[in-house]
Design brief:
This protein is of the alpha+beta class. Helix content is about 35%, strand content about 15%. A two-stranded antiparallel sheet has the order 1-4. Strand 2 (about 25) and strand 3 (about 35) form a beta hairpin. Bound molecules: iron/sulfur cluster (SF4). Iron/sulfur cluster binds near residues 12, 14, 33 and 57.
């Protein structure tokens, strides 16, 4: 999991820092929040989701690291994938799936 703060939206309330100081901090100059971890450790996932849900301006975005896995899985279900073409060809040869044995 990764987390990002849209610093253009951040209203500098500090709520995320109060919720999870291990993942967020505020810039001294202007109070805008920033993320201080490259990747969120598994143990902090619930707290990061809580911080994101509590941000009053929805400036915190959680990015689940398994998004790439979803894309690969989606490709397998894409119309006219190789798998779908093989299935369609099999159906044309043997409609209904009956294999001809009695
Ligand atoms: S909770 Fe939202 S608005 Fe407040 S400091 Fe964090 S990112 Fe900024």
């Amino acid at each position: 999991m990764r987390v990002v703060v849209n610093q253009d939206l951040c209203a500098t309330t500090g709520q995320c820092v109060l919720t999870l100081p291990g993942a967020f901090r505020q810039r001294e100059a202007d109070g805008v929040a920033e993320v201080c971890v490259a990747t969120v450790p598994q143990a902090l996932h619930p707290a990061v989701r809580l911080a994101a849900s509590q941000c009053p301006v929805a400036a915190i975005r959680v990015i689940d690291s398994n998004a790439g896995d979803d894309e690969r899985a989606g490709a397998d279900h894409a119309p006219f994938s190789a798998k779908a073409k093989r299935h369609a060809a099999k159906e044309q040869r043997n409609p209904g799936g009956h294999n001809g044995t009695v």
